[in-house]
Amino acid sequence: MQQFLEESKKISREIATLSGETKNKVLNQMADALIEHCDFIVHNNSKDMKEAENNNLSLDLKDRLLLTADRVKAMAKAIREIAALKDPVGKTLDGWVTENGLNIQKVSIPIGVIGIIYESRPNVTSDTAALCFKSGNVCVLKGGKEAHNSNQAIANILRNVLAKNKLPEQAISLLPDSSREGVAKLITQDKYVDLIVPRGGEALIKFVSQNATVPVVKHDKGLCHTYIDKYADGKKALEIAINAKCSRPGVCNSMETLLVHKEVANYILPALHEAFVYQQTELRGCEETRKIIDIQCATVEDYDTEYLANILSIKIVKDVNEAIYHINKHGSGHSECIISENYSTINKFLDEVDAACVYANASTRFTDGGAFGLGAEVGISTNKLHSRGPMGINDLTTFKYKILGNGQIR
Amino acid sequence: MQQFLEESKKISREIATLSGETKNKVLNQMADALIEHCDFIVHNNSKDMKEAENNNLSLDLKDRLLLTADRVKAMAKAIREIAALKDPVGKTLDGWVTENGLNIQKVSIPIGVIGIIYESRPNVTSDTAALCFKSGNVCVLKGGKEAHNSNQAIANILRNVLAKNKLPEQAISLLPDSSREGVAKLITQDKYVDLIVPRGGEALIKFVSQNATVPVVKHDKGLCHTYIDKYADGKKALEIAINAKCSRPGVCNSMETLLVHKEVANYILPALHEAFVYQQTELRGCEETRKIIDIQCATVEDYDTEYLANILSIKIVKDVNEAIYHINKHGSGHSECIISENYSTINKFLDEVDAACVYANASTRFTDGGAFGLGAEVGISTNKLHSRGPMGINDLTTFKYKILGNGQIR
């Protein structure tokens, strides 16, 4: 493993200096190759599907695992879109001349070797491989066991394109040892690996955070809130709350807890209740809430739970301060929203809530690279440093200072 | 300890929203207070100096520990300079409107709670406390045991100024338990601590890197190279090499290994030899070098050693590629320099050397917040992510997205 990663590090220097033209040509060839070898991918995916059947995987998981000709086409399209993005490497981020004439330039460069650990959906394999290649990085991918054959097939096709272009195949690799021990090795090889991106369940994130010596950009849970303020527009409140909870309850940017200002609770809660019942959402409320609408009781654990399901906890708060306090205490720093028409209250909320994305009067569901206009994303970072929120292609770069002198000494 | 850090986190929300005006007023009062209580500081420092005498600390360490009235004045001046810096908080770093009308703003914000672990010099206490406060952060400082009384005195003075301004004193704190166990606790409280900055020896850096679950910005060693190319200007080569090694051998941005192109070795090495002998620098060379000048033999360990002393290893390389290869293999990613007049060779070196600061024709000694024009620095980061190279006040911030909507749902 060490030898493999040492080699990854070595070739990362070659990949880092590829021109944008070369990278885009290769990426478009990769998209062509996926279409050309669609049958091969689907055939290998069917092995994983059979295994999933044998292991009684849930319908939802099987759907995430499944690849069809249409889905392969979508994968190819995603790669072409990544090729079309502006090259994130070589940008002058800042620059100045010092008093003694040193010309200092801060320039974006690739990170190097990036390890990405993710779960079942096999399209993540081609997406992240393309994002890493576009940004001049070598990737080491560790997908879910259940997608093993699909991931292998996709990686082989992408690697063949690299080889045809006389580029080192290992620039896109699956982790050779995908056991827990293999992962443990990957995340501690800080001499050769520059960044680990874990996307997955809490146990994975915890394992990686506690054991990695390589820097980690976590894609942790999203325990998102929407706060309906005293000065909320009722129509917006209703539409945004329903959208934030019900449009896709299983994703990280959906709402888990609704906070309602006590002075509008009597007016807004019955309408919300009716709308959520229509959406078959299970509601759990605090004592004050239950005096107004007839729902289940929320326990203390509810406010710390990312349901990822059509369940919502509701709490009545006395003002925006209590809302901010509750969010900073129970939130996961992902996406938080205030619905209000009051200028000062909104500013207070936007300033004081500690989260990657803080919304005024819009659904938290917009936290997404595509919706932000950043293009394809590696995921949603819950880190506070390096990358925060939608992790686009620019977050796959770091920088160096180039300093041009003329004999200066100190 | 957990309770203490929980409180630090809580008050970090208050410190984060202070206005620039308030922060600068308080900082200038802190500078005044240091001058006013100069005797108190010097008195407490004398206790540390006595202890140092009893423990037979080296002259160098004792000099680093010593505080005089002049040094206290310099500390006060540094705080005033920090107050005069532009507020790094609240800057709009980027901003755009999406197709559906969401107004997205990427805004700089304080990091939160920062733990800083450092060694003997007590002025670091006031410098880092002021930098953290200016950038809206709460700091938890763990200084060297040998400076305990000095650090306590300085911190008390600064805290009194906070209290007088009705601000929470705990915004500037010394770590309550400064044992190894205390540090181990600090670096694993990722719920309350947002960043750890270790400045110190290799053992400390290793301990923190391997055990922290809080993100770490390392201030690790500087194993810096200067490469004299075939097309070097001889005068610049001589001046820069001597400066990079001899102006202050004990600091991280000084040169440890000199690489010389084989085609200029015969011409440049005798002159360098003479100049270094004059500077009393101990030279250790490869076999090829020793055919030209009569110096000691460099072992394989030499090329991996940060001497921090007036010792230099020399190696002859066959071209810029071998120089780059050697640097990327043995360097610590800190500061590297090429001396050349050849445009393409310089560009190749600047592009392919993997380090925070890559110089053409200037001494690596310029890697420093002040020399870069960034103002006071927390140190020199050897991280590749978040902060790289001189870590100024802007690196003590992160960002959030503020998204202003008008009822948008997805």
TrEMBL record, chains A, B:
- What is an annotated GO biological process for this record, any one? L-proline biosynthetic process
Entry's Gene Ontology molecular function annotations: glutamate-5-semialdehyde dehydrogenase activity; NADP binding
Listed A to Z, the keywords are: Amino-acid biosynthesis, Cytoplasm, NADP, Oxidoreductase, Proline biosynthesis
Which pathway, metabolic or otherwise, does it act in?
Amino-acid biosynthesis; L-proline biosynthesis; L-glutamate 5-semialdehyde from L-glutamate: step 2/2
Residues annotated as domain Aldehyde dehydrogenase: 4-275, 304-373
Gene3D superfamilies per the UniProt record, alphabetical: Aldehyde Dehydrogenase, Chain A, domain 1, Aldehyde Dehydrogenase, Chain A, domain 2
For this protein, the record's SUPFAM superfamilies field holds: ALDH-like
Q: Which CDD domains match?
A: ALDH_F18-19_ProA-GPR
> What do the Gene Ontology cellular component annotations say?
cytoplasm
Kindly list the places in or outside the cell where this protein is found, as annotated in its UniProt entry: Cytoplasm
Q: Which NCBIfam families match?
A: PRK00197.1 (NF001221), proA (TIGR00407)
Q: Give the function comment from the record.
A: Catalyzes the NADPH-dependent reduction of L-glutamate 5-phosphate into L-glutamate 5-semialdehyde and phosphate. The product spontaneously undergoes cyclization to form 1-pyrroline-5-carboxylate.
Q: What is this protein called?
A: Gamma-glutamyl phosphate reductase
- To which species is this protein native? Malaciobacter mytili LMG 24559
